[in-house]
Amino acid sequence: VEMGAKLLCLLLASVLVAYYIYSPIPEDIEEPWKVMLIEASFRTLGHLAEAADQLGLMHYMEALMLLTAVEHVPPTSDENVTVTDTEFNNVAVRLYLPRRSSDGLRRAVIYFHGGGWCVGSTGMKSYDRLTRLTSNMLNAVVVSVNYRLAPKYHFPVQFEDAYSVTKFVLQSSVLSQYGVDPDRICVAGDSAGGNLAAAVAQQLLEDSEVKTKLKVQALLYPALQTLDLNLPSFQDNDHKPILPKSLMIKFWSEYFTSDSSLREAMASNRHVPVESSHLFQFVNWSNLLPEELKKGHVYTTPTYGSSELAQKYPGFLDTRAAPLLASDTQLRRLPLTYVLTCEHDVLRDEGIMYAERLRAAGVPVTHDHAKDGFHGAMMFILSPAELAVGHRLVNRYIEWLNENL
To answer: What is the rounded distance in angstroms from the CA atom of residue 316 to the CA atom of residue 320?
Structure first.
């Protein structure tokens, strides 16, 4: 009897584990079992963070930050690159300086990490690996920015940190100190970092103090708009790996405030007041998405929310937080642009719409769409969670920079 009871317990435990780990992975995603395990570990972390938050032990985002802490590596130089943690304009940065000689001045990349403005850091293994690779393969100076995070700091602090580092680097005295060519500078970032890169590139155009122009911007599955959180990509990818819609809404709302009323309004897509209705033209996917990506969805006119939220938290209608809301006149002057989007990503459509709008404004754009990609895929370039798709997208990004920067 005891043996039978043990077997039954084991069977039930196995069924629970299998149920928990198994999540349907789209057919065109490579290495589905690996992706499933990665997704299960992220989901577990999310559930633990939720529990810690409910029990009042720690804020949801602070619990997610534990992953960042576990993944942290100190700045370690190697035979190719000298790596140091320092500060530019009182903002923490990790600096990568190539060791091999250069015929002339070097290129520079200013990089903003992802993590929903709430988590992540320049010292995470995957970011350290990506920025180190970039520096070594391009023989470029890389400045990876450790901007301050929510919930402790809300918009516009993250943007201001990103902007002040960029402005600091673009000073001619700093460029000459590090041997950087003023005509070969790029801002880049993934996810929330792609948002910051796009916002910084736009803001520089309005800043008469900055004489040095960016040569390129590289936006890797960027978050670009807060207006319509029910785009086809939000509907189709609600439960796809790494970034479910509910988590993206948590990140967006937390960027502006810890007040849950904004999150609730965003979750029902009723957060934009009627007086901001003119902004919807910039995110109207029925005009801006190619037919094949509408996937049978029918555009419906927005449902407006209270003016009170927008008055309290005007950030979500600000182009510094939502670069897709910039006018065509503003977009026209932007530099050469690289946009990466992934098919299985809630942020897919805003990246595509930005690429379309930039193109229409006359900006040269390379848009890479990874049919088998999902949000955050570029972070999985280290074992044990190494994915072929991650390597492919990283190589493509570095290759593009090599050809265009």
So the answer is: 9
Contact predicate 342/374, CB 8 Å? yes
pLDDT tens-digit series, residues 26-65: 888 999 989 988 898 898 889 889 999 999 999 999 999 9
Per-residue DSSP letters for 238-270? TTSSS--HHHHHHHHHHHH-S-HHHHHHHHTT-
pTM of the model: 0.95
* pLDDT (tens digit per residue) in 240-284: 889 999 999 999 999 999 999 999 999 999 999 999 999 999 999
Q: In what order do the strands lie in the sheet with 336-344?
A: 81-88, 91-98, 141-145, 106-112, 180-190, 216-220, 336-344, 365-374
For residue 27, the model assigns a pLDDT of 83
Task: State the Cα–Cα distance between residues 288 and 349, nearest whole angstrom.
Answer: 9
Q: Which residues contact 234 (CB under 8 A, 6 or more apart)?
A: 245, 248, 346, 349
Peptide linkage before 384 cis (omega within 30 of 0): yes
Residues tagged active-site: 191, 345, 375
DSSP letter for each residue of 145-168: E----TTTS-TTHHHHHHHHHHHH
What one-character DSSP code corresponds to residue 273?
Answer: B
pLDDT (mean) for 286-308: 91
Q: Are strands 81-88 and 180-190 parallel, antiparallel or unpaired?
A: unpaired
391 vs 6 pLDDT, higher one: 391
Q: Which domains does the chain have, with CATH numbers?
A: 1-60 (no CATH), 72-226+318-404 (3.40.50.1820)
Q: Look up residue 254 and give its two tokens.
A: 């937390």
Spatial contact of 29 and 372, defined as CB atoms under 8 Å apart: yes
Structure tokens at 183: 């005509």
Strands 180-190 and 336-344: unpaired
Mean pLDDT computed over 159-188: 98
Q: Which residue in 133, 189, 183, 181 sits closest to 165, CA to CA?
A: 189
CA distance 214 to 395: 22
